[in-house]
Structures
1.
Amino acid sequence: MSHTTTPFSFAQALVSWQRTHGRHDLPWQNTTDAYRIWLSEVMLQQTQVVTVMDYYAKFLARFPDVQSLARAEHDDVMSLWTGLGYYSRARNLHACAKAVVADFGGEFPRTPEQLITLKGIGASTAAAIAVFAYGYPAAILDGNVKRIIARVHGIRTPASAATDKIMWQHANELLVTANDAKKLKLTHAAALRAYTQGLMDLGASLCARRKPQCDICPMQTNCYARIHHLTDDIPPAKVRKVSPEFDVNLYIYQHAGRVWLEKRPSKGIWAGLYSFPEQPRLDVNVNASIDANQDKKDKTNAPRIRHVLTHRILHLQPHIFQLTASQAHGLEDAENAEHGGWFDVDDLKGVGLPKPILGIIEQVLGSID
DNA sequence: AAAGCGGGGCT
DNA sequence: AGCCCAGCTTT
């Protein structure tokens, strides 16, 4: 028996804390189904738990397993992502499901090295899937973990690739070991699951960005930021550039209870979703663009919508037209028909829509009834 | 290495 | 009104 003090174990303290104070009843917990865990991890990328809840339930009800998702129509998948944002996630999700079925016999691979080869799965998501589905030892590094590591180790360099490299080293060094598990009287797999969940839970609660509750934190005596009263300064605030603003005209063509929508290009904002025909609105051009539609009757001055994205601010000006039968028919010709079509406003299931476009459709629906 | 990519919750 | 969120992909 040694008389020296047992060194503080971050991993053991975290696992113990998670088991008594962490979350245990989230919809994607208490399962080892890699499909469910993968779906939750992708939805949770840059998205808060409370936001994901509803989308997760509806997605699972529609596509309960990887085979059903792999068989799905792409637009059907996109429609379940309407409003959730970062739509490349949905496109990659579908491609990933197809790859799992085609290349892995419908079973998600078990190692981070293999998981990371799949679309939409990066290093952190691969590790989370490997831990939660298979009890495989791998370190995650999400926003929560970065904040915890920055505070515990006093890392004050701004966010960058170089800082991430340091963070990954710490994340791997801190990971709960087989010996830790033994001390905790847990299997290594159980300890890994509690540890990984514990990082997320601690970052989402006590070690929040603002007003961390250090006085009840299991790491309080071993945390650089706490000891030096620097939790407000670590991690350092990110410098954010001013978002450029864009004015956009939206052309809403209606006929016989249907609305004309066009599939957006595969790159850029809202890639692959359906939206109204649009054109940038240069002030000098506003009248010209309206004039170009003067054969149709612009019956609105619908209010302009301000829509904020991460890197830009959009001012969307809807122009609503009720088309005659011949005008409506005219739209179907030309090359428009390749990526556009008439959609029943009462049945937009299976159509992926950007949030503000969905909002406009709902508003227009209400106003014409 | 830096930029692009949504939308919402919270203060 | 600004910051951040169970990040990944493209340039």
2.
Amino acid sequence: MPRTKNATQATIKEVAARAGVSLMTVSRAIHRPEVVAATTRKKVEAAIEALNYIPDAGAGRLSTQKSTTVAVVLPSLHFEGHARTVDGLSSELRKHGLHVLIADSFYSKNTEMELLRRILGRRPAGVVLINSAHSADGRQMLLGSGLPVIETWDFPSDPMDSVVGFSHKAVGAALTRHLIDQNHSCITFLGGPQDSDPRGNERLAGFRSAMADQHLDADRVVTVEQDHLTINAGKLGISQVLDQYPDTTAVICLTDRVAMGAMMECRRRGISVPDEVAITGHGGFDFSEHLVPSLTTTHIDAYGIGVHAGRILHARLQNQLLSEEQGRIDVGFEVVARDSSVRA
Amino acid sequence: MPRTKNATQATIKEVAARAGVSLMTVSRAIHRPEVVAATTRKKVEAAIEALNYIPDAGAGRLSTQKSTTVAVVLPSLHFEGHARTVDGLSSELRKHGLHVLIADSFYSKNTEMELLRRILGRRPAGVVLINSAHSADGRQMLLGSGLPVIETWDFPSDPMDSVVGFSHKAVGAALTRHLIDQNHSCITFLGGPQDSDPRGNERLAGFRSAMADQHLDADRVVTVEQDHLTINAGKLGISQVLDQYPDTTAVICLTDRVAMGAMMECRRRGISVPDEVAITGHGGFDFSEHLVPSLTTTHIDAYGIGVHAGRILHARLQNQLLSEEQGRIDVGFEVVARDSSVRA
DNA sequence: GATTGAATTGTTAACGCTAACAAAAAACAA
DNA sequence: TTGTTTTTTGTTAGCGTTAACAATTCAATC
């Protein structure tokens, strides 16, 4: 029968008492040990050890007025690319004694303000946004906070502040060109609901412009309303594609997950990929290279996005002035052509 | 050229000044509005609005000595099951005004103490462990903190405190029995390095005991040293399996990822699944049902684990006594038999 | 209109910590 | 020695908030 003892962490006061010194001596022994006499330091360390003392970071922040927390806002933890970005960010920030506080927003819009309120209530040193789809109120609130804000995984033309990302429109266009280069002309774009996914819309815009450039039909677009970005969306979507545009020879899927669903459904129906239908994804998911046929996708340096964001943040917290370019990093992407879109 | 203004959030003092009331009145207007006169409340609310005031949660915690943060320790964000557990936990805790602080440990052992120190320095109200592989020192530190600790995704016989999980040994045994029921007798277990994955070892133990029960060879075990739990591990592993145990008719893979790699490699080699080799995974990854053939796996109620953990935590923070069972929840699991192990 | 109790607002101290200054102790110089 | 640095340690006040109590205001009663 589990019981909660009163969770009483030792305080600096108790450590001081036990070591027979003043509070400040303990504080100094921890943060600037070199200014404390060796013998005293030993006593303090012994007391810390004996009492299992761990300084209260919140109290410290309050006193120094310097936060060591960086908040990361991400839509969900389910997309591995985002997780890698958090990894990169976390490891970069760790070097500077900064820690990551993760706030998941679950894609829900009406709680965005509440989420931001919660985050800002924790007084972070900066905010990293992984989804940048923000209401005007939210932008306002963030900017008004005066904190460094870094938008990632996108490259908006009107950034709030700093940016580390890439152009989704360029992704859409590059994948389209790749397929055109493979002699496809009946290319269909398989996406999700337009109103909730600005990045998907950007990729779609890229598709459209690349098609138009070659005077191809840029309106071959199929939208799956349910199951946004899931494997199931791909399954459903490919069927719609083949219904609506039976002459389709290539499908650009919004993400690798969607592409996977599409490929699996093709296999089930005995449709050969890439011979009858070529398929591309996006996002460089770990499974993409292992599918049979292996999936053409885009490689994004997700970890690197996090590292860059961490560097920018640190620089700005040091009040280092950043040039325009230093504060706006386009990490680019790479089209990884694989068997799902390249005939043997 | 991004610049960091001095990040100066308004304080309660400024709100009070602007509203022409005392600090406490502001505090009360926020936390117990019903005891503040309507007219005063209006004034305070206007001031809060005007100044964009957001209370400093850290200062509040310091004053009340009540934390609203629950720390979640997880090895990495990359496993979707864990992410779902965090979702469940987060949404349950939200109901009670508690927030989740995520600490990723990246599976690295020597920083475990440092990680715990960082976490405890933030003075959470409780700790939820998603990986429970802990050093004696770590256990000591957590227990010594007096905080409620909830281990999840496992069902250890010697829990530190509360537990929400399932028996990995039972998983291994159940999958083995499933294959035996399908008339397999040459079953090989495909796992990873034994020293770093106690849960995998438990599943292996389950396999062994189920095999032994039927007087079958329980030593058909292949270990992939690199790429722990990745798709690639499955690719490499299945080859080793077929080399070492050419008579294998069924393979139990440590996770769905591994199973996916194994299936893909089989396909590449023209080995029919399940006719020549049956394959099972574990973990209920989203792709498992979409593979062709669909993958036999175990379904774990990952979200539910989080919800249960949240409930237990809340109860304990209310100092509600929990019975032995209430503090030790076995959420069980389900073998989901699919085409990869069941002949049509 | 004084009395009283309830409703409302204010004051003080404390949470755990550290910056800034003050004091004491030790080391050095004359 | 005795003064003068330098090193080391201590004291005070304050970070933003709230619990606990104190004071004030208000409305209702006699």
